[in-house]
Amino acid sequence: MNVRRPRLVAAAIGAVALSLAAACSTDDEAARSKAEQLVAATSDAGVAPRLTVEVAEALYGDDAAALCDVFEDGLTSTEQLILLGNPSGRRHKTITDSSIEYAELVVRTYCPDVIDEFHDVVTELDPFESTG
């Protein structure tokens, strides 16, 4: 067996490990930065007073894909029912002004390119004023 081969394999594994670590570190930094932005925005707006950077980071990661993808691709009928409630009136949704403001802050932080689509959806809502 060639003596150089194990060294080359070890060097290749090390290079891959370092690149993965760097990518994870970048993702972690991006997630933390976005979470800090969101927490600052919610604090300034007076919504979600108990939201912490750690919670926002855990909920949304670095791209809030669960929310952003919905608006990017357009709402399916199932997603409309989940978000807006059943139009037959059997599944009423309670939606407050502050919950819409919070959702808008999330969209503005993580996927500002779909803010128009977000506004198109929320204009159909009839929220009530929250009492705090």
How would you describe the overall organization of this protein?
- The chain has one domain (30-122).
- It is globular.
- The protein is 67% helix and 0% strand.
- It has helices spanning 4-45, 53-60, 65-73, 77-84, 97-110, 115-122.
- Residues 20-24 have low confidence and may be disordered.
- α1 packs across α2, α1 (4-45) runs antiparallel to α5 and α5 runs antiparallel to α6.
- By secondary structure, it is mainly alpha-helical.
Secondary-structure element pattern, one letter each = HHHHHH
The number of strands is 0
Secondary-structure class: mainly alpha
Describe the biggest sheet? none
Topology of helices and strands:
Elements: H1 4-45, H2 53-60, H3 65-73, H4 77-84, H5 97-110, H6 115-122
Helix pairs in contact: 1-2, 1-5, 5-6
